[in-house]
Inverse folding.
C-alpha cells in the first residue's frame, strides 16, 4: 500500500539511519548512510568530524553542483510481506552557521546520545523535501 | 578503515538487501531498496511481479537514459564504533532474456526462498561494477 505524505513524513522522522543519494557532474549517483533529524519538511544531516579526504566530501561537492538529493529509509525482512520503505526527494543546501544551522544542530543532539558530548560543529546539509513517499507490502506496519 | 576491493565485494554479496540509486534526465536521484545476487563484478536485480505503475518503473526509465548507478549495503548500530557500509558503483543494463538473464535468475532463486515457487520471469537489471568500496568505523566487523 502507498502511505500518505503525512504518514511517510512521520515514520521517516522516527528512523535512526537513512541513505543519502547525491549526483555528480557526470550523472554518477553517490550513496552514503547518514544520521539525520527530520522536522517539518526539513531533513538535517551532519557532516562528521573525521579527518576529511576528497572522498569523504564528495556528497558536498555533488550538492554544490546539483542540489537534487534523495533519501531512503527502509527495513528488510526475510518475510517479504513485511517490507516497507519511505523516500524523501528534495533540494539540499550546505550550511555552516546561522539560525537554521543551530536549530539543526540542536535537533541532532536531541536524537543521538553520541552528539551530547561532541555536538556537530561543522557543515550541516539541510534538505528541503518536496516529496515524501512511502510503501509497504502489507498494511501499515506501525 | 577502508576495505580492499576484494573484501568489499565479498561482504556485499552476503547481504540480503541493498539500496539502488538511479538518476533521471533532470539530475534527480531515485532510491529504492532491492534484493540482488552479486557474483564476480555483476550485481543482478530483479524487477518485481507486482502490477506496474509509471512510478514503479522509474528505475528502468532512468537506466535507459543514464546507465550510471550506485548500490549501498550498510548496517546501523547505536554504537557508532560498529558502523560499516559497502558501495558498488557501475553501469546498468536491463535484460529480458538470454544466457546472462538466465544465470542471474538462477542466482536469485538460490538466494531467496521466496523465488523458489515463483522465479523472476521479467526484466532483470544487470550492473557491471567498476568500483567496490567499503568502510568501517572500527576493525573489519566480520
Amino acid at each position: 500500500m502507498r502511505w500518505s505524505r503525512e504518514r511517510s513524513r512521520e515514520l521517516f522522522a522516527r528512523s535512526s539511519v537513512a541513505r543519502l543519494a547525491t549526483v555528480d557532474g557526470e550523472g554518477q549517483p553517490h550513496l552514503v548512510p547518514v544520521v539525520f533529524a527530520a522536522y517539518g519538511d526539513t531533513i538535517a544531516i551532519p557532516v562528521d568530524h573525521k579527518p576529511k579526504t576528497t572522498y569523504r566530501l564528495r556528497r558536498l561537492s555533488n550538492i554544490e553542483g546539483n542540489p537534487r538529493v534523495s533519501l531512503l529509509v527502509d527495513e528488510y525482512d526475510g518475510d517479504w510481506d513485511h517490507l516497507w520503505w519511505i523516500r524523501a526527494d528534495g533540494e539540499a543546501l550546505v550550511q555552516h552557521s546561522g539560525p537554521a544551522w543551530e536549530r539543526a544542530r540542536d535537533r541532532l543532539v536531541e536524537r543521538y546520545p553520541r552528539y551530547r558530548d561532541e555536538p556537530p560543529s561543522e557543515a550541516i546539509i539541510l534538505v528541503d523535501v518536496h516529496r515524501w513517499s512511502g510503501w509497504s507490502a502489507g498494511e501499515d506496519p506501525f
User: Anything to note?
Assistant: Residues 2-136 of chain A form a domain with the Pnp Oxidase; Chain A fold (CATH 2.30.110.10). The beta strands of chain A are 2-3, 18-23, 29-34, 37-39, 42-46, 68-75, 84-95, 124-136.
